[in-house]
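Subject: design request, 139 residues
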C-alpha cells in the first residue's frame, strides 16, 4: 500500500466519493452497496457491477491511496481478519495476542479445578447408581 491507514476501505471510499471522477464514483458506490464482498471479487467483476471498465477500478483503488486493486483487496481481507479475531483481541486495552495475564490464568485455573471437583464428585455418586442399575435383573 502506498498510504498506511487504520481507516476501513469503506470509510476511505465514503470520504473520497466527492473527489472521484464520475466513473470512479460508480465503482465506489458499487463497492459500498455490497461491502466488502464486491471488493473481494475480481476487478473485472466489480467493473461489471459498476458498469465501468476494469482500468477504472484500478484508478479507483489508486485514488484511495492503494498501489492497485490487489492492495485494496489485501486491506479488505485484513479488516475481515480483524473482525474475526475475537472480541478480546479487539478491546483497546487487550494484551497482545499470545501474552497471558497471570490474574486471569489463576482465576481460570481455580474455576476449572472447582468444576472438575464437581464432576469428579458426580461421577463417584454416579458409579453407585450405575452399578445398581446394571445389577438389576432383566438388564
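Subject: RE: design request

Done. Sequence follows.
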Amino acid at each position: 500500500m502506498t498510504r498506511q491507514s487504520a481507516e476501513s476501505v469503506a470509510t476511505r471510499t465514503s470520504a473520497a466519493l466527492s473527489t472521484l471522477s464520475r466513473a470512479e464514483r460508480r465503482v465506489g458506490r458499487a463497492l459500498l452497496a455490497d461491502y466488502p464482498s464486491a471488493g473481494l471479487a475480481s476487478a473485472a467483476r466489480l467493473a461489471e457491477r459498476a458498469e465501468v471498465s476494469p482500468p477504472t477500478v484500478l484508478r479507483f483503488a489508486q485514488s484511495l491511496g492503494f498501489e492497485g486493486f490487489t492492495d485494496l483487496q489485501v486491506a479488505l481481507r485484513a479488516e475481515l481478519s480483524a473482525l474475526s479475531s475475537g472480541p478480546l483481541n479487539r478491546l483497546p486495552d487487550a494484551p497482545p495476542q499470545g501474552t497471558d495475564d497471570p490474574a486471569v490464568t489463576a482465576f481460570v485455573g481455580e474455576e476449572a479445578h472447582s468444576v472438575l471437583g464437581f464432576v469428579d464428585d458426580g461421577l463417584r455418586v454416579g458409579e453407585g447408581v450405575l452399578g445398581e442399575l446394571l445389577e438389576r435383573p432383566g438388564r
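The longest helix spans residues 102-135.
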